[in-house]
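Hi again,

Forgot to attach this to my earlier email, sorry! This is the prediction with glutamine bound. I've pasted everything inline since the attachment limit keeps bouncing my files.
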Amino acid sequence: MIDLKNLTIKKAHEALIKGEYTAVDLATAYLEQINKLDKDIHAYLEVFSDVLEQAKIADEKIKSGKAGQLTGIPIAIKDNILIKGRIASAGSKILENYIATYDATVIKKLKNEGVVFMGRTNMDEFAMGSSTENSAYGPTKNPYDLERVPGGSSGGSAAAVAANMALIALGSDTGGSVRQPASRCGIVGLKTTYGMVSRFGVIAMGSSLDQIGPFGKTVEDAEILFNAIKGQDKMDSTTIESPKSKVESPKSKFKIGVPRDFLKMGGIDESVVKNFEESLNRLKELGHEIIDVELSNSKYALAVYYVLCPAEVSSNLARYDGMRYGKRVSGSTGIEDYFLSRQSGLGEEVKRRIVLGTYVLSSGYYDAYYNKANTVKEIIKNDYKKVFEKVDIIATPTTTEVAFKIGEKTADPLQMYLEDIFTVSVNLTGNPAISVPSGMKKVDGKDLPMGIQFISDHSREDKLFAVSKSFLGENI
Ligand code: GLN
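Structure tokens for the complex follow:
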């Protein structure tokens, strides 16, 4: 029996190289776990039928001595990242039968490594949401309590890793969609610096905000996956060169800034505040310095995000018109086809964003909303820049509370938007941020995970990994 619960990439790699078990054995163990749990959790929209064939090919690579660290490692992929020849539906009915015609750059890189793709994971439709309840295929459940959400929008990927139905996973983060589910499922999730990872082959939501991000049970696993997918790509002109600088000593002591004003805003659960203070104490005991910093304009980040994101959504989703690809419902005229296809193919939240986005971009409102939001975004960016002249890391809780019950927030979209309060700022500024587990809260007799978010200066993911490993006491 392979101990999936305590397995990491390094442990699996070692065992595969030593021949303690094969990639087929490993994939079989994960498939058994999926068979056992996923009818309740619903992390996967599809488990690929060729998992064992992929594993066999990985075994050949291992036998021939050409294996890398990720060869034979089972990974789950969010349903908005294209894998050639497979469906990518972005959790939407409009792309229910859409088969990708090419590999996303990250997928190409992972194929070269010889990973084993287990399947595609559930998500809020087109990544719009914080709970995975907006999926057109039904919600994913939190492995810690099946009555609760796993967070979103990459809830399927996070739940798959948390329930040991994949060793690692990829998600996408436009306003918190990797970090929030990581926090609510008790795992590690990274939003990379904007441009660090190619977006080529990701179904676009908000192109100036979207980044693909890795999930793992440990910081090291997320780091290994990050290193495998990052890099400049000529297919995505917004990608940047990977930095040369690295934290010199793995035991570095950091200056950690805490934006107290921001944390004083209402709506944060007391247990989260308490857990956050305890986390700061732990960091202090580890020798890091905690100082107060001011990010006074961060309180506007959520409003700015919910202008800019829908604006980009309304433009990006214009391509789902029933003509070029995806679902088509025929009416009596071309324009009617268009209306009918979009009416029946897109869900409520997606339509809400398209309407909001079209509104803020319309003449007469463009200056009042879209332009103003962009101006405030620049101010927020400047605030972060100034703070990072003084500190290495900014720390906040990842979410305002632990996982909520399925259905609890679906009636009021604003309630759902408020979930993003701590996570959206860095999507506006482009900074990288990571969520790591920080403790548990008992609710209705069940232990529910909480997370802490660390943010660093652009291209300094190395600092995020170092401080997170120090916080969790991972080998450094
Ligand atoms: N919850 C946010 C939204 O609904 C962020 C989603 C995401 O990061 N994809 O827009």
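Residues 127-130, 153, 173-177, 205, 309, 420 surround glutamine (CB under 6 Å). The chain has a mean pLDDT of 96.

That should be everything now.

G.
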